[in-house]
Amino acid sequence: MSVRIAVLPGDGIGPEVVAAAQRVLQRIADIGGYTFVFEEALLGGCAIDATGSPLPDRTLGVCEDSDAILLGAVGGPRWSDPSLPVRPEQGLLGLRQHFTLFANLRPVKVFPALIPHAPLRPELLADGVDILFVRELTGGIYFGERREQGSGDSAYDTLYYTVAEVERVAHVAFKAAQQRRRKVTSVDKANVLAAMRLWRRTVHNVARDYPDVELEDVLVDACTMHLMRRPASFDVILADNMFGDILSDESATLAGSLGMLPSASLGEGTFGLYEPIHGSAPDIAGKGIANPIGTILSAAMLLRYSLGLAEEASLIEQAVETVLESGLRTADINLGGQKAASTAEMTDAILAQLPA
Ligand code: IPM
Ligand code: MG
Questions:
Q1: Which of 188, 189, 274, 305 does the annotation list as catalytic?
Q2: Are residues 343 and 272 part of one domain?
Q3: Helix (H/G/I), strand (E/B), else coil: 30
Q4: The last residue of a domain, from among 196, 220, 254
Q5: Average pLDDT, the chain
Q6: In the annotation, is 212 catalytic?
Q7: What is the pLDDT at residue 39?
Q8: What is the Cα–Cα distance from 264 to 104, expressed in whole angstroms?
Q9: What is the per-residue pLDDT across 217-252, written as a single tens digit (0 to 9) for each?
Q10: Which ligand 1 atom is the nearest neighbour of the CA of 75?
C-alpha cells in the first residue's frame, strides 16, 4: 500500500508535535511494509509570513493530492491583532470548508494513569470516562453571514443551519454510537434559538433510523454542568460547530491536559484531516517540551479512518497507555517529583512499545 499524507506543521509547537507523530507513522509503515509519502506545506501564520495567505494555493494542491492531512496547530501572538485582515485561523477554517469536512470527531478518553491530573475528584472519573464528541464543522455560526465594519458600532454573525447539514452529521453520530455504547446526547439551545429548534427536530428525525440507539437532548448550558458532574454517563455527544468547540475544550480538563486529545475531521469519503485539539502554545514553542500524545493519537485516527488500518491504530493507542502507566510524563501532565520528559523522550518511549 502506498499513500500520500499532507503534513501541515503550522505554527508554535505544531512542527515539534507533528515531527513526533510522523516518526510514529513511519514506524507503522516500516512494520507493515507500507509506503507513506509525506509532503509538507505551509498553513497559518507561517504561510502568511511566506505568501501573504494563511492557506496558499500550493498547500491546497498538496492536500488535494493526498489521502489524508496531518496538521499541527496554527496561530500565535504575532498574528493575533484583531485588526489584521488575514488571520492564521482562516487557513484552518478554509481547509475544513474546502474539503467539506463536516464531522469533527473528538474522543475524550481518560487514561486511568492520568486521573490524578484532572481537576475533578477522582471518584467522578473512576467509572471510566469515554466520550466521543461529534462536532458539526462546516456550518453554523462559524460560516453564517457576518458583517464587521472596521471600528463601526455594530457587527453580527449568523447562526444558520439547513436540515441537510444537520442530518449528515447526525448520521455520523448515530453510526458511531452503534459501534459504542448506543447513546447519543444531542446538545442545543432549542429553548431560545430557531436554528437550534431545527437542529433538535432534525436529530429526532434521524434517530428513527437508529432504534437501537438512545437519544438524549441536553441544553448546552446544562451540558457544561453535566460534563463535570456525571462525565462517565456520556457516550456520543453531538453538537453544532460552536457548542462543540466549547464543550470539547471543557471536556479536555477531564483528560488531565489539552495536550492529550486528538481529533479527526471527516467528510463523505475516507479523506480526513487529523490534528490535536490543542493550539500552538507559543509560550513553550521551540523548547522541545510539548506533549506529542494528542498528535500521535491523531495519527492513530488517521490510520483508522483514512487508511483502514484499525489494528495499527490500536497498537499506537495501547503504546501510549503503556507509557503513561510506566509513569513517564511531559511537563503538562507532570505533578512534580520527577523530571519531565521532553517531546523526543516521550516519542521514543512510545516507539519503544511498538514492534521494531
Ligand atoms: C478548534 C479551534 C478552532 C475552532 C480555531 C483555531 C479556529 O479552536 O479546532 O477547536 O474554533 O474550530
Ligand atoms: Mg477549539
A1: 189
A2: yes
A3: helix
A4: 254
A5: 96
A6: no
A7: 98
A8: 6
A9: 999 999 999 999 999 999 999 999 999 999 999 999
A10: 6
Hey, what amino acid is at 165? Answer: E
CB-based contact 128:110 (threshold 8 Å): yes
Q: Using an 8 Å Cβ cutoff, are 306 and 270 in contact?
A: yes
Residue indicated by cell numbers 464587521 = 148
Q: Kindly report the CATH number assigned to the domain that includes residue 220.
A: 3.40.718.10
pLDDT score for 337 = 77
Active site annotation includes 249? yes
User: How many A from CA of 278 to the centre of ligand 1?
Assistant: 9
Report which bound ligand comes closest to the CA of 279: 1
Per-chain residues with Cβ under 5 A from ion ligand 2: 245
Q: Is 217 a catalytic residue?
A: no
Set 67, 142, 274, 332: catalytic member: 142
Q: Which atom of ligand 1 is nearest to the CA of 248?
A: 10
C-alpha cell at 57: 494555493
Shared domain for 101 and 47, answered yes or no, is yes
Residue 114 lies in a domain: no
Q: How far apart are CA 237 and CA 189, in angstroms?
A: 14
Q: Residue 1 C-alpha to ligand 2 middle, in angstroms?
A: 34
Range of the domain at 347: 1-109+256-356
Domain boundary among 254, 277, 292: 254
Residues 232 and 294 placed together within one structural domain of the fold: no
Q: Are 282 and 233 part of one and the same domain?
A: no
